[in-house]
Amino acid sequence: MVGNLYLGGAQPSAEDKDALVLPGFSPGIELVTTGTEGEGGRAYLSFVMPAAGVSVMRAMVTTEILGKARLSGVAYENPDGTALQLDRDYLGKARGPGNPTVGPFEGIGQGEVRLRVW
């Protein structure tokens, strides 16, 4: 674990290297849904991203960085056995190899964010 962002009182584990902790910052996370799934319903994730979290340097998550699972001793890899590289975010946007954005969404910047998640 390295370079994670902890907000609103969340605390990193002792193993998380270079964690950025902003205990007084509340991201105000909210999931807003419209309609129902059968009627083409949509869900939006709204939150506020702090300026400090955007500038922290981190590496792309790969098989090499993840190492092996604690219980099975098996490496994290793709279903076909090739090395894993998390080069796309939750929404399919390409991640920069030099300094990907913290969290599941790439390049969201700072301030208020509203993303359609389904």
Describe this structure in words.
This protein has 118 residues and is mainly β. It is built from two helices and five strands. The chain has helices spanning 51-54, 63-66, and strands at 5-7, 20-22, 30-34, 42-49, 111-116. A three-stranded antiparallel beta sheet has the order 3-4-5. Strand 3 (30-34) and strand 4 (42-49) form a beta hairpin. The longest helix is centred in the middle third of the chain and has 4 residues, at 51-54. The radius of gyration is 16 Å and the shape is globular. The mean pLDDT is 86.
Topology (elements, then pairings):
Elements lengths: L4 E3 L12 E3 L7 E5 L7 E8 L1 H4 L8 H4 L44 E6 L2
Parallel strand pairs: 1-2
Antiparallel strand pairs: 3-4, 4-5
How many distinct helices?
2
Fraction of residues in helix: under 10%
Helix/strand structural class: mainly beta
The count of β-strands is 5
Adjacency order of strands in the biggest sheet: 3-4-5
* Uncertain runs: none
Bin the strand percentage.
15-25%
Task: Give a brief rundown of this model.
By secondary structure, the protein is mainly beta. The chain is built from two helices and five strands, in the order ββββααβ.
List keywords for this structure.
118 residues, 3-stranded antiparallel beta sheet, mainly beta, two-stranded parallel sheet, 7% helix
